[in-house]
Each structure stands twice: as C-alpha cells, then as structure tokens.
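Researcher: Structure for this, please.
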Amino acid sequence: MSDLIHVFPCQQEGCRGTAIPLAKDGRFYAHPTHGWLFVCIPAHFLIHRCSNCGRDWLTEPNQKLVNDFLEESFQEHASLIRGVVDAARAKAKAEADAKK
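Model: Predicted structure, token format:
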C-alpha cells in the first residue's frame, strides 16, 4: 500500500484521532521559501487530516508533492507576483516620503 493512502494515528499531543487521506479543494499552504505567498492546493492532492482535531499532516512523499506544486505555481506566476510586490513597495515608499 502506498504511503499516500495509508492511515496513521494523529501525531498531535493528546489527540487520539486518526489521520486519513482527504481530497479537498480550498486548502492553502505557504510557499517554503516565500512564506508570505499562500497557494491553493488542488483537490486531487490527498493530504492526511486528523478525524479528531482536524490538523493536516504531510507525510514525506506528500510534503515533496506539495512543495513541488508550490514552487511550480510560484515560477508560473513569478513575474506577476514580483510586479505586485514591487508596486506595493513603491506605493508604501511614496506614502512614507509624502509624510516627511
């Protein structure tokens, strides 16, 4: 059986739940090196979630898949993201300079 589909006891201290693989749309994860950037993980990614406390658990194979997806998404939109960040910085600087 694949590591992606097995169940295991929740690792959260005091929780007695079971982490089961869940396919769900609308889960956002932070990019590993650009922590300010959150990306929606598609529903077809199975990520373990505790049946009791609700915490997501990424196994090593899942973590690699998610990180690869986050990096691909960042690279795909990097120029747009940089443009938005640069524009926000320029606006903040202009506002700060105007207050001087």
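Researcher: Any notable elements?
Model: The CA atoms of residues 20 and 48 lie 5 Å apart. The longest strand covers residues 18-23.
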